[in-house]
Amino acid sequence: MAPMTLSPVALAPSTLAPVALALDTATPFLTLALSWPGGELERAEEVGRASAERLADEVRALFGEAGLPFQARTIVIGTGPGSYTGVRVGASYALGLARVWGAEVRGVSTLESLVRGEGRQAVSLDARKGNVYSAVYEVSGGTVTATVQPVARRALADFEAETGDLPHWRDPAPSGLSLLRAGLSHGETQWALAYL
């Protein structure tokens, strides 16, 4: 009797469980999130400039912790603003995974990962020399539902004067789940990276 030969079978994206991965390397934090039917998991760790060295292992560890095979149907990428190298590390990795997995990649501003709680709120990232990259969002259910003031570079003092008594999240650790939810809700399939 001849030995049986098994060939790997690639699953078409439409047959995969709706697993979604979010990743962002635009800030000093390596920000990740994963969602699947019945669960979600996130991780944000300050790694400075070590995103490139840590990204692949941390993504695999996240899938391992969730007990899922290493494959997603959708990948959400934080598009910045961020450092030139940092933003490109995450985007390159996401595009590589998407090609291998046959996954869709959606882009969302990194600033959407800074929101907390509910309601109208201001968010910003340091842009040096007294400036910030900032935006004002409406948030419901932990997801940005409307952009009140689009992402722009502004003087910090001017932005704080414009936003008055709104809650202002200034350089917080990003939330991978906020990024993931935004990407699944309204992420762009035709996206561009934004640099500091």
TrEMBL record:
This is tRNA (Adenosine(37)-N6)-threonylcarbamoyltransferase complex dimerization subunit type 1 TsaB. Keywords: Signal. GO terms for biological process: tRNA threonylcarbamoyladenosine modification. Residues 45-149 form the Gcp-like domain. Gene3D superfamilies: 3.30.420.40. InterPro entries: ATPase_NBD, Gcp-like_dom, T6A_TsaB. It comes from the Bacteria. Residues 1-22 form the signal peptide.
